[in-house]
């Protein structure tokens, strides 16, 4: 496990191994070895971490969350958070060392250490400690059952760190693939832990490649250029940083269309990255999921998600550089609070990532890949020749790229 996890994480795993009572698996208590961990303890540890239930994993997580060698029946919220920070950092390190970052460049991305802390805080927010502020085994069991990422990250640590393989079970996929991104010119707002959180929220999960289609760093502060990147590229993820350091955005489930009506569906959501990592899904109150308009006299011109005209949960004005997040107390569409530092904010940077399969070209739409009816249906060509019809385009069309 050395080289794939911090010393702190390695010590946690070792203390957990030593705390395992191998006799419990056989229905009887037995004293563990006085010094070190035995083979029986390792077998029980592997079985519980890799194939165990939440009930079986909870005591192991309690043991790994403890800060000392002594056995305690409870741990504090802060101790669980520190364990999670070590675990997530180890997973990120494993992804990098094993070459599983799928085209992403951590050195050209956001602060990974900050992302680790934010993701750990998010996952720990689901803990339900007692009135005394402590977590016993039953509390941790309930948490592990409701937060599947904990078991997933623990499985990756054990499989990779102890070089254990599960027959017929591929290694977990934690990052989406990244394609066609000019990393030499880009400093991405995303970091790996944030990606690990956002990717599972998308309908395509980790399958569809992410492609950068707009960045103020690369394309300048142009609303028209951003609209060109947003439209006709399928689902997109919008990422915004304001001048006070808040990072937030939204997921659009459909290709954007420039029109004065709302669009999209309930798969859309808003999210924050900094100072807290959170996601806000559709409430069902209304269908004001997406809005994109330009060059209109009587309707708002800009990009909006959630809320209503002039009171969007997220708004970017077509006069590029300004926006608002007016959600007091909450955005009606997504139940989100104010995303930015101030309700009216100034943009620092914007990124748009295409995160799904691009839509198929509409029938009759010009563009690359459009074929003549003569190429699409050779039978039509044969029938026209048999009936003496003149093939006016024959010999005048440019040859297809795949034809010699």
TrEMBL record:
Annotated ranges, domain TLDc: 188-356
Region Disordered: start and end of each range?
A: 356-404
Note whether Cell wall biogenesis/degradation occurs among the keywords: no
The signal sequence is none
In this chain, composition skew of type Basic and acidic residues spans: 395-404
Which GO cellular component term is one of those annotated? nucleus
Main location class: cytoplasm
User: One biological-process term from Gene Ontology?
Assistant: response to oxidative stress
Q: Which Pfam family, any one of them, does this sequence belong to? A: TLD
UniProt cross-references to PANTHER family, sorted A to Z: MTOR-ASSOCIATED PROTEIN MEAK7 (PTHR23354:SF131), NUCLEOLAR PROTEIN 7/ESTROGEN RECEPTOR COACTIVATOR-RELATED (PTHR23354)
Protein name as catalogued:
MTOR-associated protein MEAK7
Q: Which organism is it from?
A: Betta splendens (Siamese fighting fish)
């Amino acid at each position: 496990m050395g080289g794939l996890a911090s010393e702190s994480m390695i010590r946690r795993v070792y203390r957990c191994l030593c705390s395992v009572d191998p006799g419990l698996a056989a229905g009887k208590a037995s004293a563990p070895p006085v010094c070190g961990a035995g083979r029986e303890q390792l077998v029980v540890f592997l079985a519980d971490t890799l194939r165990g239930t939440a009930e079986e994993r909870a005591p192991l997580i309690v043991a790994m969350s403890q800060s000392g060698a002594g056995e305690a029946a409870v741990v504090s919220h802060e101790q669980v958070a520190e364990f999670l920070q070590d675990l997530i950092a180890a997973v990120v390190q494993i992804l990098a060392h094993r070459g599983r970052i799928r085209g992403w460049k951590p050195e050209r991305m956001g602060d990974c250490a900050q992302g680790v802390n934010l993701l750990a805080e998010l996952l720990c927010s689901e803990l339900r400690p007692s009135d005394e502020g402590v977590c016993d085994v039953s509390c941790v069991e309930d948490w592990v059952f409701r937060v599947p990422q904990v078991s997933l990250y623990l499985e990756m640590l054990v499989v990779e760190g102890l070089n254990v393989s599960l027959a017929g079970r591929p290694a977990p996929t934690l990052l989406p693939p990244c394609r066609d991104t000019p990393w030499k010119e880009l400093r991405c707002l995303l970091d790996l832990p944030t990606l690990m959180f956002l990717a599972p929220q998308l309908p395509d999960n980790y399958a569809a490649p992410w492609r950068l289609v707009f960045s103020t760093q690369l394309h300048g502060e142009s609303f028209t250029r951003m609209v060109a990147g947003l439209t006709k590229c399928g689902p997109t993820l919008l990422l915004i940083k304001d001048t006070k350091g808040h990072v937030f955005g939204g997921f659009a489930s459909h290709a954007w269309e420039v029109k004065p009506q709302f669009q999209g569906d309930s798969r859309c959501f808003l999210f924050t990255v900094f100072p807290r990592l959170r996601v806000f899904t559709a409430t069902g109150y209304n269908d004001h999921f997406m809005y994109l308009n330009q060059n209109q006299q009587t309707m708002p011109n800009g990009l909006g998600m959630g809320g209503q005209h002039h009171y969007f949960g997220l708004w970017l004005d077509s006069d590029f550089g300004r926006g608002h997040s007016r959600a007091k107390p909450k955005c009606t569409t997504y139940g989100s609070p104010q995303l930015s530092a101030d309700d009216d904010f100034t943009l620092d940077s914007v990124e748009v990532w295409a995160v799904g399969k691009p839509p198929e070209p509409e029938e009759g739409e010009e563009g690359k890949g459009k074929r003549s009816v003569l190429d699409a249906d050779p039978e039509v060509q044969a029938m026209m020749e048999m009936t003496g019809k003149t093939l006016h385009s024959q010999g005048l069309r440019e040859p297809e790229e795949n034809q010699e």
